[in-house]
Amino acid sequence: MTLSCATPRDQSMWLYKVRSATSELLYSIKAILETARMNMRLLRRREFWTIDIVIVRPVTLAKRGPFGLNKIHRVKAPYNHFQMRRPLLLGAILVTGGSGFIGSNFIRMLLAEDHQNQVVNLDSLSYGSNPANLRDLEDRKNYRFVKGDICDLELVRKISAGVEVVVNFAAETHVDRSISNPEPFLRTNALGVLNLLEACRSNDLRFVQVSTDEVYGSSSDGRAFKETDRLEASSPYSASKAAADHLAQAYHKTYGLKALITRCTNNFGPYQFPEKFIPKAIIRAHKNLKIPVYGSGRQIRDWIHVLDHCEALALVMQNGRDGEIYNIAGGNQIENVLAAETILKILGRPFSLVEHVQDRPGHDFRYRLDSSKIQDELGWKPKRSFDSGLRETVRWYLDNERWWLSIADDKMLSATPWKEKW
Ligand SMILES: NC(=O)c1ccc[n+]([C@@H]2O[C@H](COP(=O)([O-])OP(=O)(O)OC[C@H]3O[C@@H](n4cnc5c(N)ncnc54)[C@H](O)[C@@H]3O)[C@@H](O)[C@H]2O)c1
Questions:
Q1: Strands 143-147 and 165-168
Q2: What are the residue ranges spanned by the domains of the chain?
Q3: Is the pTM of this model over 0.85?
Q4: Distance in angstroms (rounded) separating the CA atoms of residues 207 and 329
Q5: Which of 121, 147, 149, 173 to mutate to test the pocket of ligand 1 (most atoms within 8 A of CB)?
Q6: Which of these, 72, 177, 207, 366, could form a disulfide with 300 (CB 3.0-4.6 Å)?
Q7: Quick one: pLDDT at residue 269?
Q8: CATH superfamily assigned to domain 80-271+305-333+365-400
Q9: How many CB atoms lie within 10 A of CB 202?
């Protein structure tokens, strides 16, 4: 074995060459890498530098290491959200579910940040997607759309073969629908993720699972959940997301897959499907219809602007530690009824348009996350306030009526969607 190393102070590059190794040695190397990462974080230097770590392993050990040590690990550090405009070091990125709300914002951000990014979007274009979300990007040379299902293992294997990382947004996402018809949720959100994990395992890829605060269940005492808290899903939707989280962790522990999980609070912003609370409230109020709030409307959600979420995801994708979970919280704890009233205020409509309707079964009262881990480790912080973000979002829906007009029918805007047949 030879091990050569130059400090980042000298030339921003560490080179490790391992010609023969035992599995214990792989553990040691992992420890060295972790120490290097920690040191980088501690340095917190403002300038931008890159560390390349090259590990050459004997073929016989290629699949054995529990940490999936790869040919090239590239780590940029220190990193904070002001450096989002720096080029991404990762190669091609497969985004699954990229034609939906958060996925399309994420792809837009990746392609706006750096023209070198290669993005492949695999989406089945189910009801929650809107091809118009990314239509203006269709001619871009570094963007490719593939219509397909993450439950199709062969397809997923084939598409992921040429990429470096998979970021999974693909999911059935409406809690109310999961109450009425849970099966599609388990199919896509759990079995679909199993396929993605298998494809990442056979192609040795990094995998980011975009999960949700809902997996922790309700915070009855108002405590903010940490990544180490146990999962207590309440709805078929959150149960299917929790299943995917467990699978991703199991693939990391069992096969050394470079899997990472993010759990984010409620998103708002442009391109969100009209059946979700904020766009539904905007569209209904705009049409002078009542805004339905479940029960007392005192349930609390922590709202985050979708672009703050996307920036956090980009950081995790590049610099997150394999096998780790990162909570992402907006820090805007607001009662549902107050969110509805804020929308009415922005639109200049009376608060009497708020209508209290029958609560849905298993409704979590409050979600609350502690996101100090991603803040401390990756330097992320949400930048957008709820008030200004919401104003911009309302403006976007008013300016883009053509985007939602054909999809926002009566059923989609239903006051109690969990009672509908889907
Ligand atoms: N919206 C939120 O507030 C929020 C908060 C936290 C986490 N999340 C998670 O973020 C992810 C994206 O959420 P969103 O709000 O953008 O959802 P969305 O419903 O807007 O988008 C989901 C996308 O996945 C695609 N899709 C569904 N099934 C598929 C399949 N089998 N194969 C391929 N594509 C498929 C849909 O066509 C759609 O484009 C989800 O995994 C969700 O659980 C969302």
A1: unpaired
A2: 1-78, 80-271+305-333+365-400
A3: no
A4: 21
A5: 173
A6: 366
A7: 97
A8: NAD(P)-binding Rossmann-like Domain (3.40.50.720)
A9: 12
